[in-house]
Amino acid sequence: MAHALQREAFANGQVLLLGDAGDDRQRERELINNLLHRQVDGLLYTSVDRHPYIELIQATGTPFVMLDRVDDAQQISAIRVDERAAAFQATQHLIEHGHRDIAIICGPLDMLNTQDRLNGWRDALQQAGLRVRNEWIFSTTYTRPGGYQAAQQMLKGPLPQALFTTNELQALGCLRAMAEHNLTAPRDLALICFNGTIESEYNVPSLTTVRQPLDAMAKTAIEMLKNWDGKPTIREFDFSLQIGESCGCSHTQRN
């Protein structure tokens, strides 16, 4: 998303300053304060948890658009996809492959997008009449190390048939952990992830992933800032399932 936003900002004669809080809530507040003190023209904002610093930004009158799931009661502008529905479709794809024991590596449980993705996984299992096993829920950061550590924990117990990771970086970390145990996807474990990028296609195996229309989302986010009038606007985008090799689909199926 950051690269798409940079391209769109540049195309509109703007400069994008990027701040990364690294899942640290205190650092997030400091970054926001720093940007506000610089009197930036607007903020594009993804919070590290479900308690974004909305009032801090609103107090300055600075235009801002959330790039993430937010509480609808907050009456703020945001762009998003239906992450619960996306997680449902990803999990359902694994079920259609005949898998019944499906684990999930998700993000921090206090994040709204984690809850949406986790609930989508649950919905798919329950609709198929499958057991939701809490011991196969592994919460971690949305990072490669997080995925690696969660996978190592998962591999200490009975191996599920399939795994849904709630972002691409977690999937990459998981594949590293699997390799250390001489396991591969999809031979030993079918794998699907959320929020994949072009990198998913060049991994070995290529990752089956839920893709968001990042270019369209970035274009809309920049337009919302440029046309800011203070009225809350929610723009929801469609997602798509990009079929790769990691879930077990054959080359013929992918083409």
UniProtKB/TrEMBL annotation:
In which domain of life is the source organism classified?
A: Bacteria
| Pfam families the UniProt entry points to | Peripla_BP_3
Query: Transcription regulation among the record's keywords?
Result: yes
Could you tell me which residue ranges the Transcriptional regulator LacI/GalR-like sensor domain spans?
A: 91-226
MF terms from GO for this chain are:
DNA-binding transcription factor activity; isomerase activity; transcription cis-regulatory region binding
Q: Which UniProt keywords apply?
A: DNA-binding, Isomerase, Transcription, Transcription regulation
Task: Write down what this protein is called.
Answer: Transcriptional regulator LacI/GalR-like sensor domain-containing protein
